[in-house]
Design brief:
This protein is an alpha+beta fold and about 750 residues long. It is about 25% helix and about 25% strand. The strands form eight sheets. A seven-stranded parallel sheet has the order 15-16-14-18-19-20-21. Strands 30-27-32-25-2-33 form a six-stranded mixed sheet. The chain has a five-stranded antiparallel sheet with strand order 3-26-31-28-29, with no helix packed on it. Helix 9 packs across helix 12. The protein is globular and about 80 Å long.
Length: about 750
């Protein structure tokens, strides 16, 4: 069987077309009860005016925030009450939960907003008013997180975040006032409080309030957005047992092998087998002589050669060298880890894949992304790298069975697995004994599940991280790697499925010629899993992601019965990319029907905004592969057109249609054929309300069409058909060693 090149389709501006613009929406919701509704809103706004009258007297020349809650039917941006907010000289400065707007107000604009809601007769403003469900001031009840409300000891460092009003003067005044308040309360700059570096828009301080009285006075300041605990990272305790044999020697590493950055507890300096695989080290451990290196050493063994150590070809035949960054000894705060990562990324631009088998106990939120996850997103964007992050381990009793016996969110992924730009990895079981909780190829009992915030697919992929009994015992069912001395040992965890994916991804990047493209790398990784994976339900994706990535050759080359094309497109709102799509002649029946299996994977690096919790992802790219009938009407075939799509509320599209998600995957099997000869790929982009793209949105789409019987010459026929369509293509240039000898 031949292995054929993936076809990279040349981007052509002639494929860009204008799409119909619907314009604004003046829908008036519940028109029959509008007057009653307006009166209720005036009451809400009057309460906010009264609250801020006291606040602005106490804190002059500062700005506060009101929360505007929208009706569920009005979540879409076309219904957003931007007109009346603008007319009141207010400004939307962020979002909270789905349908919750944060609006910046001062002593004048809050009164003007009340007047506009009470008296405005403009058609657009009436529609805006009808879209609003409730208005309330942002108060200390919103600022102080639940865990801080139960605090007994205030003599500790807490994380304080200020609102960003999207105005340098307002932000400066608020920050100046906050520092002044702390100084008046007896706290000293750089001793009791300090400004931290997260992202450009996250204005965060570490503050030791010392006493409850100081805390209560400072937390009353209207410029604050939140007070919470810092996340901390500690060495992960391993459930390990000694394996049957010892001192397995690995081959010496090849200089052509890629390098994975390993940020963990460090690799044991007494492990002689791993020493040749370590290309460098930056040590951030205060007392190396007392360090527990077991976790980092175990991960290092899996990066260097998971297949040989586990003697099983379900593990990939790929290896990587390691740049070792020991950071975990006792407890490391999130801001300290961010500072270390920034230093290392700056020093080592040649390393593109970084393994973070780090976890916390902080379950991800439904609607907002963690500060640490957002900071990781900015680092990945700034330094053009990919973090590969463990989904986290669920170790509570009873462990999860399969199908799941857990009905609440206890086994949801933990931060920083909510990082949008990262690849998050879950775990599958690969072995089973009589006491095991699950069977092979089922989600490991400890592997945390998705989705991420705002229903984005997390984890994206899974690999094998072991099985266990109900007490987390893993003898004969764990992964095998090294202990600190070089002996073989068994252990389990998403910490150990993650480095397997890191190594696959590093080798994938290493085997593609040309400039590193994160979209392409992630899309190829995920697409290879999609091609292998059985059909998954929407719920199953939360546990399996899109599946287990394929072998390296499967990621980069096609068999004769399959054809894969890659599109790297640039998109602008109001325009749509349309590309006639060739159908291989062998997949067209004698009566003119098209059959076969079709797989589509989309990955894009959208702009992000830390001020917007539920609207953190600022663009939505949508892709479909469809057919055109004799009248020129386009009909989606992958994904399928559904009768209720057009009328769906925004919430339903987000929960079930992956709207705004940076990864989308579609699959359709057509065994009996469909009456559709002329096909076209459509790709478009939309933006959030009041957001404009500074530059075109890049997106990578991978489409594979294949013969279910694995017999027909799909690749050759696809190449012929693509030439007939006038396609200009280039082969995805890969390392020749991946090709089988002919």
């Amino acid at each position: 069987m031949n292995k054929n090149d993936f076809l990279v389709v040349a981007y052509d501006t002639s494929d860009i077309h204008a799409k119909q613009n619907r314009g604004g929406d003046n829908t008036i919701f519940d028109f029959a009860n509008f007057d009653k509704h307006r009166t209720e809103l005036v009451g809400y706004t009057t309460n906010a005016v009264n609250y801020f009258e006291k606040a602005f007297n106490k804190y002059p020349n500062t700005s506060g925030v009101v929360k505007i809650y929208l009706r569920e039917q009005a979540f879409a941006k076309s219904h957003r009450p931007t007109e009346i907010i603008k007319d009141a000289d207010c400004k939307i400065v962020g979002t909270g939960t789905l349908g919750e707007l944060f609006v910046s107000v001062n002593s004048s604009s809050i009164n003007k907003l009340e007047t506009k809601i009470k008296n405005s007769q403009k058609q657009k403003n009436i529609a805006n008013i009808s879209a609003i469900k409730e208005i309330a001031p942002y108060t200390p009840d919103d600022i102080i997180s639940k865990d801080i409300r139960e605090l007994k000891n205030y003599n500790q460092v807490l994380k304080v975040k200020l609102f960003d009003h999207n105005n340098d003067v307002l932000n400066y005044n608020n920050e100046l006032k906050f520092v002044e308040i702390l100084n008046k309360l007896g706290l000293q700059n750089d001793v009791d409080f300090k400004k931290l570096k997260y992202t450009k828009k996250l204005n965060i301080y570490s503050v030791n309030f010392k006493t409850k009285e100081i805390f209560e006075e400072a937390s009353d300041f209207i410029g604050l957005k939140s007070i919470s605990n810092f996340m901390s990272f500690c060495p992960i305790k391993q459930h390990s047992v000694k394996a049957a044999c010892n001192n397995l020697a690995l081959n010496e590493p090849n200089e052509k092998l890629p390098i994975v950055g390993l940020v963990d507890s460090g690799i044991s300096p007494t492990n002689e087998i791993l020493k040749p695989w370590i290309v460098g080290k930056s040590n951030y451990i205060a007392k190396p002589a007392l360090q527990d290196y077991s976790h980092g050493t175990f991960i290092a063994g899996l990066i260097t050669n998971a297949r040989n150590l586990n003697d099983d070809n379900i593990f990939p035949d790929v290896k990587a060298r390691i740049f070792d960054v020991p950071v975990l000894d006792d407890s490391l705060r999130e801001d300290e880890l961010l500072a270390i990562l920034e230093i290392e990324l700056e020093k080592h631009p040649e390393i593109k894949i970084w393994n973070l088998s780090l976890g916390t106990d902080a379950i991800c939120d439904d609607y907002s992304f963690s500060d640490f996850g957002m900071a990781l997103d900015e680092l990945q964007e700034r330094f053009n790298v990919i973090f590969v992050i463990a989904a986290g381990n669920y170790c509570e009793s009873p462990l999860r069975q399969w199908p799941s016996n857990i009905s609440d969110n206890a086994d949801r992924i933990t931060t920083p697995a909510d990082s949008v730009r990262a690849i998050t990895v879950g775990s599958l079981a690969h072995k089973q004994i009589i006491s095991s909780v699950v069977s092979p190829n089922e989600p490991s009992p400890f592997s945390r599940r998705g989705p991420g915030p705002m229903f984005i697919p997390k984890p994206e992929v899974v690999h094998y991280g072991g099985n266990c009994d109900k007490e987390l015992g893993c003898k004969q069912t764990g992964l095998v790697s090294f202990d600190e001395a070089g002996n073989l040992t068994e252990s389990i965890g998403t910490s150990f499925s993650t480095p397997i994916v890191s190594t696959i991804l590093a080798n994938l990047v290493n085997n593609i010629d040309g400039e590193f493209n994160p979209n392409l790398a992630k899309a190829l990784l995920i697409h290879s899993a999609v091609l292998k994976q059985k059909e998954l339900s929407e719920n199953d994706i939360n546990y399996f992601g899109f599946g287990v990535p394929g072998d390296l050759s499967e990621m980069l080359l096609s068999p004769d019965w399959q054809a894969t094309s890659i599109f790297n497109v640039k998109l602008q709102p109001g325009l749509i990319y349309k590309k006639d799509f060739p159908i291989p002649e062998c997949l067209i029946t004698s009566d003119g029907k098209v059959f076969g299996d079709i797989y589509v994977t989309l990955v894009y690096n959208q702009p992000l905004d830390e001020n917007n919790a539920s609207e953190y992802c600022r663009t939505n790219v949508d892709v479909s592969l469809g057919s055109i009938d004799a009248e020129g009407t386009y009909k989606k075939q992958v994904p399928l057109d559904t009768p209720d799509c057009a009328g769906n509320f925004e919430k339903i599209l987000i929960e079930h249609g992956y709207k705004w998600a940076p990864v989308k995957v579609y699959k359709r099997s057509i065994p009996k054929g469909v009456n559709a000869i002329n096909w076209r790929l459509n790709v478009g982009v939309i933006t959030r309300s009041q957001f404009e793209l500074d530059e075109p949105q890049d997106a990578t789409i991978i489409v594979t069409i294949s013969d279910p019987s694995k017999l027909l010459p799909v690749y050759n026929d696809f190449v012929v058909a693509s030439r007939t369509k006038g396609w200009v293509t280039n082969a995805l240039r890969v390392n020749n060693r991946l090709r089988p000898q002919q």
